[in-house]
Protein backbone atom coordinates (compact mmCIF):
# COMPACT_ATOMS: atom_id res chain seq x y z
CA UNK A 1 0.00 0.00 0.00
CA UNK A 2 1.25 3.49 -0.74
CA UNK A 3 1.44 4.52 2.90
CA UNK A 4 3.65 1.56 3.75
CA UNK A 5 6.62 3.40 2.34
CA UNK A 6 5.48 6.83 3.37
CA UNK A 7 6.82 6.63 6.90
CA UNK A 8 10.42 6.33 7.98
CA UNK A 9 13.09 5.49 5.46
CA UNK A 10 11.79 3.62 2.44
CA UNK A 11 13.17 0.14 1.86
CA UNK A 12 15.45 -0.48 -1.11
CA UNK A 13 13.62 -1.13 -4.38
CA UNK A 14 12.38 -4.69 -4.54
CA UNK A 15 13.21 -5.29 -0.90
CA UNK A 16 10.86 -7.58 0.96
CA UNK A 17 12.80 -7.35 4.22
CA UNK A 18 10.23 -4.99 5.62
CA UNK A 19 7.39 -7.35 4.78
CA UNK A 20 6.44 -9.38 7.79
CA UNK A 21 2.90 -10.36 6.77
CA UNK A 22 2.69 -12.68 3.78
CA UNK A 23 -0.01 -14.53 1.92
CA UNK A 24 1.61 -17.97 1.86
CA UNK A 25 -1.20 -19.61 -0.07
CA UNK A 26 -4.85 -19.16 -0.96
CA UNK A 27 -6.07 -19.42 2.60
CA UNK A 28 -3.14 -18.74 4.94
CA UNK A 29 -1.38 -15.65 6.19
CA UNK A 30 2.02 -15.94 7.83
CA UNK A 31 3.23 -13.29 10.23
CA UNK A 32 6.96 -13.66 10.56
CA UNK A 33 8.92 -11.02 12.39
CA UNK A 34 12.45 -11.07 13.72
CA UNK A 35 12.73 -7.58 15.09
CA UNK A 36 16.24 -6.90 16.34
CA UNK A 37 16.32 -7.10 20.13
CA UNK A 38 12.97 -8.81 20.53
CA UNK A 39 11.52 -12.25 20.40
CA UNK A 40 10.97 -13.84 17.01
CA UNK A 41 7.29 -13.87 16.20
CA UNK A 42 5.86 -16.49 13.87
CA UNK A 43 2.14 -16.88 13.64
CA UNK A 44 -0.13 -18.44 11.04
CA UNK A 45 -3.72 -17.36 10.44
CA UNK A 46 -6.19 -19.23 8.27
CA UNK A 47 -9.10 -17.69 6.41
CA UNK A 48 -11.52 -18.70 3.69
CA UNK A 49 -9.48 -16.88 1.07
CA UNK A 50 -6.36 -14.72 1.13
CA UNK A 51 -5.42 -12.21 -1.58
CA UNK A 52 -1.95 -10.80 -2.00
CA UNK A 53 -1.01 -7.24 -3.01
CA UNK A 54 -0.85 -8.25 -6.69
CA UNK A 55 -4.47 -9.41 -6.88
CA UNK A 56 -6.82 -7.20 -8.85
CA UNK A 57 -10.08 -5.69 -7.68
CA UNK A 58 -11.82 -8.13 -10.04
CA UNK A 59 -10.16 -11.10 -8.34
CA UNK A 60 -11.36 -9.86 -4.97
CA UNK A 61 -14.86 -9.32 -6.34
CA UNK A 62 -15.02 -12.97 -7.43
CA UNK A 63 -15.35 -13.84 -3.72
CA UNK A 64 -18.41 -11.64 -3.53
CA UNK A 65 -20.18 -12.57 -6.76
CA UNK A 66 -21.98 -15.72 -5.47
CA UNK A 67 -23.44 -13.71 -2.60
CA UNK A 68 -25.42 -11.61 -5.07
CA UNK A 69 -27.13 -14.69 -6.38
CA UNK A 70 -27.90 -15.59 -2.77
CA UNK A 71 -29.42 -12.15 -2.30
CA UNK A 72 -31.87 -12.74 -5.13
CA UNK A 73 -32.52 -16.25 -3.84
CA UNK A 74 -33.86 -14.79 -0.60
CA UNK A 75 -30.91 -14.32 1.75
CA UNK A 76 -29.78 -11.18 3.52
CA UNK A 77 -26.11 -10.46 2.86
CA UNK A 78 -23.58 -8.25 4.63
CA UNK A 79 -20.06 -7.49 3.42
CA UNK A 80 -17.81 -5.39 5.62
CA UNK A 81 -14.23 -4.19 5.31
CA UNK A 82 -12.17 -4.04 8.49
CA UNK A 83 -8.61 -2.87 9.07
CA UNK A 84 -6.33 -0.13 10.24
CA UNK A 85 -6.48 3.42 8.95
CA UNK A 86 -5.02 3.58 5.45
CA UNK A 87 -5.18 -0.20 5.11
CA UNK A 88 -7.28 -0.20 1.92
CA UNK A 89 -10.88 -0.58 3.13
CA UNK A 90 -12.29 2.22 1.00
CA UNK A 91 -10.18 1.04 -1.93
CA UNK A 92 -11.65 -2.44 -1.46
CA UNK A 93 -15.27 -1.38 -0.96
CA UNK A 94 -15.59 1.64 -3.25
CA UNK A 95 -12.42 1.81 -5.30
CA UNK A 96 -9.86 4.47 -5.89
CA UNK A 97 -11.71 6.49 -8.55
CA UNK A 98 -14.59 7.84 -6.55
CA UNK A 99 -15.94 10.25 -9.13
CA UNK A 100 -16.12 8.43 -12.44
CA UNK A 101 -16.93 4.76 -12.06
CA UNK A 102 -17.97 4.19 -15.63
CA UNK A 103 -14.79 4.83 -17.68
CA UNK A 104 -12.96 1.59 -18.47
CA UNK A 105 -9.80 2.55 -16.54
CA UNK A 106 -11.92 3.45 -13.53
CA UNK A 107 -13.91 0.23 -13.83
CA UNK A 108 -10.72 -1.77 -13.25
CA UNK A 109 -10.19 0.10 -10.02
CA UNK A 110 -13.82 -0.12 -8.93
CA UNK A 111 -14.35 -1.76 -5.60
CA UNK A 112 -16.98 -4.12 -4.30
CA UNK A 113 -19.87 -1.63 -4.09
CA UNK A 114 -19.91 -0.52 -7.76
CA UNK A 115 -19.17 -4.03 -8.97
CA UNK A 116 -21.84 -5.57 -6.74
CA UNK A 117 -24.40 -2.98 -7.81
CA UNK A 118 -23.88 -3.66 -11.52
CA UNK A 119 -23.76 -7.42 -11.01
CA UNK A 120 -27.02 -7.25 -9.06
CA UNK A 121 -28.77 -5.45 -11.91
CA UNK A 122 -27.25 -7.85 -14.44
CA UNK A 123 -28.73 -10.75 -12.49
CA UNK A 124 -32.06 -8.97 -12.20
CA UNK A 125 -32.12 -8.43 -15.98
CA UNK A 126 -32.11 -12.23 -16.38
CA UNK A 127 -35.25 -12.57 -14.24
CA UNK A 128 -38.80 -11.80 -15.34
CA UNK A 129 -39.30 -8.11 -16.07
CA UNK A 130 -40.68 -6.27 -13.05
CA UNK A 131 -40.01 -9.13 -10.62
CA UNK A 132 -37.41 -7.19 -8.62
CA UNK A 133 -37.14 -3.60 -7.54
CA UNK A 134 -34.17 -2.10 -5.71
CA UNK A 135 -33.83 0.78 -3.29
CA UNK A 136 -30.72 2.24 -1.76
CA UNK A 137 -30.09 3.86 1.60
CA UNK A 138 -26.83 5.29 2.91
CA UNK A 139 -25.93 5.68 6.57
CA UNK A 140 -22.87 7.02 8.28
CA UNK A 141 -21.94 6.35 11.90
CA UNK A 142 -19.84 9.29 13.03
CA UNK A 143 -18.89 9.93 16.64
CA UNK A 144 -21.46 7.30 17.67
CA UNK A 145 -24.28 9.12 15.88
CA UNK A 146 -26.22 7.74 12.96
CA UNK A 147 -26.60 10.09 9.98
CA UNK A 148 -28.90 9.47 7.04
CA UNK A 149 -26.88 10.69 4.05
CA UNK A 150 -29.76 10.50 1.56
CA UNK A 151 -32.23 12.50 3.65
CA UNK A 152 -32.85 15.92 2.12
CA UNK A 153 -33.66 19.27 3.67
CA UNK A 154 -36.54 21.51 2.51
CA UNK A 155 -34.51 22.66 -0.47
CA UNK A 156 -33.92 19.09 -1.58
CA UNK A 157 -30.26 19.08 -0.54
CA UNK A 158 -28.80 16.02 1.19
CA UNK A 159 -27.14 17.21 4.38
CA UNK A 160 -26.96 14.13 6.63
CA UNK A 161 -29.87 13.96 9.02
CA UNK A 162 -29.48 12.41 12.46
CA UNK A 163 -31.46 9.19 12.97
CA UNK A 164 -32.17 6.75 15.79
CA UNK A 165 -31.68 3.02 15.81
CA UNK A 166 -34.47 1.10 17.50
CA UNK A 167 -35.11 -2.50 18.35
CA UNK A 168 -38.45 -3.67 16.96
CA UNK A 169 -40.96 -5.91 18.72
CA UNK A 170 -39.45 -8.88 16.88
CA UNK A 171 -35.98 -8.05 18.19
CA UNK A 172 -34.51 -6.77 14.94
CA UNK A 173 -32.87 -3.37 14.57
CA UNK A 174 -34.41 -0.63 12.47
CA UNK A 175 -33.82 3.02 11.57
CA UNK A 176 -37.16 4.84 11.49
CA UNK A 177 -37.67 7.39 8.71
CA UNK A 178 -34.58 6.24 6.82
CA UNK A 179 -34.53 7.68 3.29
CA UNK A 180 -34.58 5.15 0.44
CA UNK A 181 -34.04 5.98 -3.23
CA UNK A 182 -35.33 3.65 -5.95
CA UNK A 183 -32.54 2.69 -8.36
CA UNK A 184 -32.51 0.82 -11.67
CA UNK A 185 -28.80 0.39 -12.49
CA UNK A 186 -25.36 0.18 -10.98
CA UNK A 187 -24.52 3.56 -12.50
CA UNK A 188 -27.50 5.06 -10.72
CA UNK A 189 -26.37 3.58 -7.39
CA UNK A 190 -22.89 5.04 -7.82
CA UNK A 191 -24.32 8.38 -8.97
CA UNK A 192 -26.28 8.59 -5.73
CA UNK A 193 -23.36 7.43 -3.67
CA UNK A 194 -20.95 9.84 -5.36
CA UNK A 195 -23.33 12.65 -4.48
CA UNK A 196 -23.38 11.84 -0.78
CA UNK A 197 -19.82 10.65 -0.20
CA UNK A 198 -18.69 14.25 -0.02
CA UNK A 199 -20.72 14.44 3.21
CA UNK A 200 -18.71 11.65 4.77
CA UNK A 201 -16.40 12.76 7.56
CA UNK A 202 -12.77 12.74 6.44
CA UNK A 203 -9.60 14.03 8.04
CA UNK A 204 -5.93 13.12 8.01
CA UNK A 205 -4.52 10.55 10.41
CA UNK A 206 -0.89 9.90 11.19
CA UNK A 207 -0.66 7.56 8.21
CA UNK A 208 -3.49 8.48 5.85
CA UNK A 209 -4.17 11.95 4.47
CA UNK A 210 -7.77 11.26 3.34
CA UNK A 211 -8.85 8.99 6.14
CA UNK A 212 -12.58 8.29 6.51
CA UNK A 213 -13.48 9.04 10.10
CA UNK A 214 -16.87 7.37 10.01
CA UNK A 215 -18.37 3.98 9.28
CA UNK A 216 -20.30 3.93 6.00
CA UNK A 217 -23.21 1.55 5.50
CA UNK A 218 -24.71 1.33 2.01
CA UNK A 219 -27.82 -0.85 1.88
CA UNK A 220 -29.45 -2.16 -1.28
CA UNK A 221 -32.93 -3.47 -0.47
CA UNK A 222 -34.36 -5.81 -3.08
CA UNK A 223 -38.10 -6.39 -3.25
CA UNK A 224 -38.92 -9.59 -5.12
CA UNK A 225 -42.28 -10.64 -6.43
CA UNK A 226 -43.12 -14.21 -7.26
CA UNK A 227 -43.82 -15.49 -10.77
CA UNK A 228 -47.48 -16.05 -9.81
CA UNK A 229 -47.97 -12.49 -8.66
CA UNK A 230 -46.30 -11.23 -11.82
CA UNK A 231 -48.41 -13.42 -14.08
CA UNK A 232 -51.51 -12.10 -12.46
CA UNK A 233 -50.29 -8.53 -12.83
CA UNK A 234 -49.67 -9.12 -16.53
CA UNK A 235 -53.15 -10.55 -16.99
CA UNK A 236 -54.55 -7.43 -15.43
CA UNK A 237 -52.46 -5.25 -17.69
CA UNK A 238 -53.51 -7.10 -20.81
CA UNK A 239 -57.19 -6.79 -19.89
CA UNK A 240 -56.51 -3.07 -19.20
CA UNK A 241 -58.19 -3.19 -15.84
CA UNK A 242 -57.12 -0.91 -13.07
CA UNK A 243 -56.24 -2.57 -9.78
CA UNK A 244 -58.30 -1.51 -6.79
CA UNK A 245 -56.81 1.67 -5.35
CA UNK A 246 -56.71 0.28 -1.83
CA UNK A 247 -54.21 -2.38 -2.87
CA UNK A 248 -51.55 0.23 -3.63
CA UNK A 249 -50.91 0.50 0.08
CA UNK A 250 -49.27 -2.88 -0.01
CA UNK A 251 -46.06 -1.56 -1.51
CA UNK A 252 -43.72 -1.51 1.44
CA UNK A 253 -42.19 1.87 0.74
CA UNK A 254 -44.06 5.11 0.19
CA UNK A 255 -41.53 5.97 -2.53
CA UNK A 256 -42.37 2.76 -4.37
CA UNK A 257 -46.05 3.56 -4.11
CA UNK A 258 -45.41 6.96 -5.67
CA UNK A 259 -43.39 5.36 -8.40
CA UNK A 260 -46.21 2.95 -9.15
CA UNK A 261 -48.37 5.84 -10.29
CA UNK A 262 -45.72 8.04 -11.91
CA UNK A 263 -42.47 6.28 -12.83
CA UNK A 264 -39.52 8.64 -13.30
CA UNK A 265 -38.24 9.17 -16.82
CA UNK A 266 -36.20 6.29 -18.16
CA UNK A 267 -37.40 3.81 -15.58
CA UNK A 268 -39.76 0.96 -16.36
CA UNK A 269 -43.08 1.21 -14.63
CA UNK A 270 -43.41 -1.42 -11.90
CA UNK A 271 -46.03 -4.07 -12.39
CA UNK A 272 -49.31 -3.03 -10.81
CA UNK A 273 -50.16 -4.46 -7.41
CA UNK A 274 -52.09 -7.69 -7.25
CA UNK A 275 -54.60 -9.01 -4.75
CA UNK A 276 -51.94 -11.34 -3.39
CA UNK A 277 -49.84 -8.34 -2.50
CA UNK A 278 -51.94 -7.45 0.46
CA UNK A 279 -54.32 -8.60 3.10
CA UNK A 280 -57.44 -6.83 1.83
CA UNK A 281 -59.59 -9.27 -0.05
CA UNK A 282 -61.67 -8.14 -3.01
CA UNK A 283 -64.77 -8.93 -1.00
CA UNK A 284 -63.81 -6.40 1.65
CA UNK A 285 -62.93 -3.72 -0.85
CA UNK A 286 -65.54 -1.07 -1.48
CA UNK A 287 -64.12 -0.66 -5.01
CA UNK A 288 -65.46 -2.95 -7.68
CA UNK A 289 -62.58 -5.30 -8.42
CA UNK A 290 -61.67 -7.46 -11.38
CA UNK A 291 -60.74 -10.18 -8.92
CA UNK A 292 -64.28 -10.59 -7.65
CA UNK A 293 -65.24 -12.12 -10.99
CA UNK A 294 -65.79 -15.89 -11.03
CA UNK A 295 -62.87 -16.42 -13.43
CA UNK A 296 -60.16 -18.53 -11.79
CA UNK A 297 -57.33 -16.59 -10.22
CA UNK A 298 -54.25 -17.81 -8.35
CA UNK A 299 -54.98 -18.50 -4.71
CA UNK A 300 -53.36 -16.02 -2.35
CA UNK A 301 -50.40 -17.61 -0.63
CA UNK A 302 -47.33 -16.53 1.25
CA UNK A 303 -45.21 -17.14 -1.83
CA UNK A 304 -47.06 -14.39 -3.67
CA UNK A 305 -46.29 -11.65 -1.19
CA UNK A 306 -43.34 -9.43 -2.09
CA UNK A 307 -40.29 -10.24 -0.01
CA UNK A 308 -37.43 -7.99 0.91
CA UNK A 309 -33.79 -8.93 1.18
CA UNK A 310 -30.94 -6.64 2.13
CA UNK A 311 -27.39 -6.27 0.89
CA UNK A 312 -25.41 -4.28 3.45
CA UNK A 313 -22.04 -2.99 2.29
CA UNK A 314 -19.96 -1.60 5.12
CA UNK A 315 -16.77 0.43 4.90
CA UNK A 316 -15.68 0.65 8.52
CA UNK A 317 -13.59 3.56 9.76
CA UNK A 318 -9.97 2.63 10.35
CA UNK A 319 -8.65 1.45 13.67
CA UNK A 320 -5.74 3.50 14.84
CA UNK A 321 -3.02 2.68 17.32
CA UNK A 322 -1.29 5.89 18.39
CA UNK A 323 2.41 6.12 18.80
CA UNK A 324 2.09 5.93 22.57
CA UNK A 325 1.50 2.23 22.11
CA UNK A 326 3.17 1.59 18.78
CA UNK A 327 5.53 -1.16 19.74
CA UNK A 328 5.65 -4.78 18.92
CA UNK A 329 3.92 -6.37 21.87
CA UNK A 330 1.22 -3.79 22.40
CA UNK A 331 -2.00 -5.43 23.55
CA UNK A 332 -4.52 -4.20 21.04
CA UNK A 333 -7.47 -3.79 23.35
CA UNK A 334 -5.52 -1.18 25.31
CA UNK A 335 -5.64 1.21 22.42
CA UNK A 336 -9.20 0.37 21.44
CA UNK A 337 -10.91 1.25 24.66
CA UNK A 338 -10.74 4.11 27.09
CA UNK A 339 -6.96 4.07 26.91
CA UNK A 340 -7.22 5.80 23.60
CA UNK A 341 -8.09 9.03 25.36
CA UNK A 342 -4.56 9.34 26.69
CA UNK A 343 -3.26 9.22 23.14
CA UNK A 344 -3.47 13.03 23.11
CA UNK A 345 0.07 13.08 24.38
CA UNK A 346 1.20 11.61 21.06
CA UNK A 347 0.04 14.60 19.05
CA UNK A 348 -3.62 13.80 18.42
CA UNK A 349 -5.92 16.16 20.23
CA UNK A 350 -9.33 17.87 20.32
CA UNK A 351 -11.90 16.82 17.73
CA UNK A 352 -9.52 14.38 16.06
CA UNK A 353 -8.89 12.66 19.35
CA UNK A 354 -12.62 12.41 20.02
CA UNK A 355 -13.21 11.00 16.52
CA UNK A 356 -10.44 8.52 17.02
CA UNK A 357 -11.75 7.50 20.40
CA UNK A 358 -15.29 7.01 19.02
CA UNK A 359 -13.97 4.88 16.15
CA UNK A 360 -11.89 2.72 18.44
CA UNK A 361 -14.73 2.31 20.93
CA UNK A 362 -17.17 1.24 18.25
CA UNK A 363 -14.68 -1.22 16.77
CA UNK A 364 -14.01 -2.48 20.26
CA UNK A 365 -17.79 -2.94 20.70
CA UNK A 366 -17.85 -4.86 17.41
CA UNK A 367 -15.11 -7.14 18.67
CA UNK A 368 -16.96 -7.61 21.99
CA UNK A 369 -20.09 -8.64 20.09
CA UNK A 370 -18.12 -11.19 18.09
CA UNK A 371 -16.54 -12.44 21.33
CA UNK A 372 -19.94 -12.87 22.98
CA UNK A 373 -21.29 -14.69 19.92
CA UNK A 374 -18.19 -16.89 19.64
CA UNK A 375 -18.50 -17.90 23.29
CA UNK A 376 -22.27 -18.26 22.91
CA UNK A 377 -22.88 -15.99 25.88
CA UNK A 378 -26.54 -15.45 26.72
CA UNK A 379 -26.18 -11.67 26.43
CA UNK A 380 -24.68 -10.11 23.31
CA UNK A 381 -23.91 -6.40 23.88
CA UNK A 382 -25.24 -5.12 20.55
CA UNK A 383 -26.46 -1.90 22.10
CA UNK A 384 -23.08 -0.80 23.42
CA UNK A 385 -22.57 1.18 20.24
CA UNK A 386 -24.68 2.49 17.38
CA UNK A 387 -22.53 0.54 14.93
CA UNK A 388 -23.24 -2.85 16.51
CA UNK A 389 -26.89 -1.97 17.09
CA UNK A 390 -27.24 -1.13 13.38
CA UNK A 391 -25.43 -4.27 12.23
CA UNK A 392 -27.07 -6.55 14.79
CA UNK A 393 -29.16 -8.50 12.28
CA UNK A 394 -26.20 -9.06 9.98
CA UNK A 395 -23.67 -10.06 12.62
CA UNK A 396 -25.84 -12.20 14.83
CA UNK A 397 -28.89 -12.74 12.67
CA UNK A 398 -29.64 -14.82 9.64
CA UNK A 399 -27.57 -12.97 7.03
CA UNK A 400 -24.63 -14.30 5.04
CA UNK A 401 -21.73 -12.28 6.42
CA UNK A 402 -18.39 -11.69 4.70
CA UNK A 403 -15.64 -9.80 6.53
CA UNK A 404 -12.80 -8.47 4.35
CA UNK A 405 -9.67 -7.79 6.41
CA UNK A 406 -7.32 -5.18 4.98
CA UNK A 407 -3.81 -5.46 6.40
CA UNK A 408 -0.47 -3.94 5.62
CA UNK A 409 2.41 -6.35 4.95
CA UNK A 410 5.10 -4.15 6.51
CA UNK A 411 6.76 -4.39 9.88
CA UNK A 412 5.92 -0.81 10.70
CA UNK A 413 2.23 -1.72 10.99
CA UNK A 414 2.71 -5.11 12.58
CA UNK A 415 0.72 -4.25 15.69
CA UNK A 416 -2.27 -3.11 13.67
CA UNK A 417 -2.02 -6.06 11.29
CA UNK A 418 -1.91 -8.54 14.18
CA UNK A 419 -4.93 -6.87 15.67
CA UNK A 420 -6.88 -7.03 12.39
CA UNK A 421 -5.93 -10.66 11.81
CA UNK A 422 -6.98 -11.42 15.39
CA UNK A 423 -10.33 -9.75 14.71
CA UNK A 424 -10.78 -11.93 11.63
CA UNK A 425 -9.86 -15.06 13.56
CA UNK A 426 -12.44 -14.14 16.17
CA UNK A 427 -15.10 -13.56 13.52
CA UNK A 428 -14.43 -17.05 12.16
CA UNK A 429 -15.09 -18.56 15.58
CA UNK A 430 -18.61 -17.26 15.62
CA UNK A 431 -20.97 -20.13 15.08
CA UNK A 432 -24.32 -18.97 13.91
CA UNK A 433 -27.24 -20.93 12.67
CA UNK A 434 -27.26 -21.45 8.91
CA UNK A 435 -28.27 -18.33 6.97
CA UNK A 436 -32.05 -18.28 6.69
CA UNK A 437 -33.76 -17.91 3.36
CA UNK A 438 -36.78 -15.66 3.25
CA UNK A 439 -40.14 -16.76 1.90
CA UNK A 440 -39.58 -20.40 1.09
CA UNK A 441 -42.46 -20.30 -1.34
CA UNK A 442 -40.67 -17.94 -3.73
CA UNK A 443 -39.80 -19.65 -6.98
CA UNK A 444 -37.09 -17.88 -8.91
CA UNK A 445 -36.37 -18.95 -12.43
N1 LIG B 1 -4.66 -2.67 -3.02
C1 LIG B 1 -4.36 -1.39 -3.30
N2 LIG B 1 -3.86 -1.05 -4.48
C2 LIG B 1 -3.58 0.23 -4.78
N3 LIG B 1 -3.81 1.27 -3.93
C3 LIG B 1 -4.32 1.00 -2.74
C4 LIG B 1 -4.64 -0.35 -2.36
N4 LIG B 1 -5.14 -0.32 -1.11
C5 LIG B 1 -5.14 0.98 -0.74
N5 LIG B 1 -4.65 1.76 -1.72
C6 LIG B 1 -4.47 3.21 -1.67
O1 LIG B 1 -4.00 3.51 -0.34
C7 LIG B 1 -4.63 4.67 0.16
C8 LIG B 1 -5.38 4.34 1.44
O2 LIG B 1 -6.41 3.39 1.13
P1 LIG B 1 -7.90 3.53 1.67
O3 LIG B 1 -8.40 4.92 1.56
O4 LIG B 1 -8.68 2.49 1.00
O5 LIG B 1 -7.65 3.17 3.19
P2 LIG B 1 -8.74 2.98 4.35
O6 LIG B 1 -8.47 1.66 4.98
O7 LIG B 1 -10.11 3.20 3.84
O8 LIG B 1 -8.30 4.13 5.33
P3 LIG B 1 -9.16 4.90 6.44
O9 LIG B 1 -9.68 3.89 7.38
O10 LIG B 1 -8.14 5.79 7.10
O11 LIG B 1 -10.21 5.66 5.73
C9 LIG B 1 -5.54 5.19 -0.94
O12 LIG B 1 -4.87 6.17 -1.65
C10 LIG B 1 -5.79 3.97 -1.81
O13 LIG B 1 -6.05 4.35 -3.14
TrEMBL record:
ATP binds at residues 83-90. One of its GO terms (biological process) is microtubule-based movement. One of its GO terms (cellular component) is microtubule cytoskeleton. InterPro entries: Kinesin-like_fam, Kinesin_motor_dom. Residues 265-276 have a biased composition (Pro residues). The keyword Repeat does not apply. The keyword Transcription does not apply. Residues 232-306, 426-445 are annotated as: Disordered. Residues 434-445 have a biased composition (Basic residues). SMART domains: KISc. It is found in: Cytoplasm, Cytoskeleton. One of its GO terms (molecular function) is ATP binding. Keywords: ATP-binding, Cytoplasm, Cytoskeleton, Motor protein, Nucleotide-binding. Residues 279-292 have a biased composition (Low complexity). Residues 1-430 form the Kinesin motor domain. Belongs to the TRAFAC class myosin-kinesin ATPase superfamily. Kinesin family. This is Kinesin-like protein KIF25. It comes from Clupea harengus (Atlantic herring).
Amino acid sequence: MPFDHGLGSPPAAGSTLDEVVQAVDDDSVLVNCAKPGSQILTKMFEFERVHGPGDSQEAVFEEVRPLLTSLLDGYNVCIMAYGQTGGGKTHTMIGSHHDNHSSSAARDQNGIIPKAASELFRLISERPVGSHTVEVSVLEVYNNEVLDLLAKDEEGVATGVKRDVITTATGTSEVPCLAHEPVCSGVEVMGLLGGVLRLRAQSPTLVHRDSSRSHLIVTLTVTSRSANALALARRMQSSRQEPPRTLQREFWSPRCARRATAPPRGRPAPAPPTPEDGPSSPASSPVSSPFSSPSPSPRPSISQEPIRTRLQLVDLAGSECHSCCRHLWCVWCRCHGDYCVVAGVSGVSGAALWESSCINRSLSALSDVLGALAEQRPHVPYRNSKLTHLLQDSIGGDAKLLVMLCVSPTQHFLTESLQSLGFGARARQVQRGPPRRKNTGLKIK
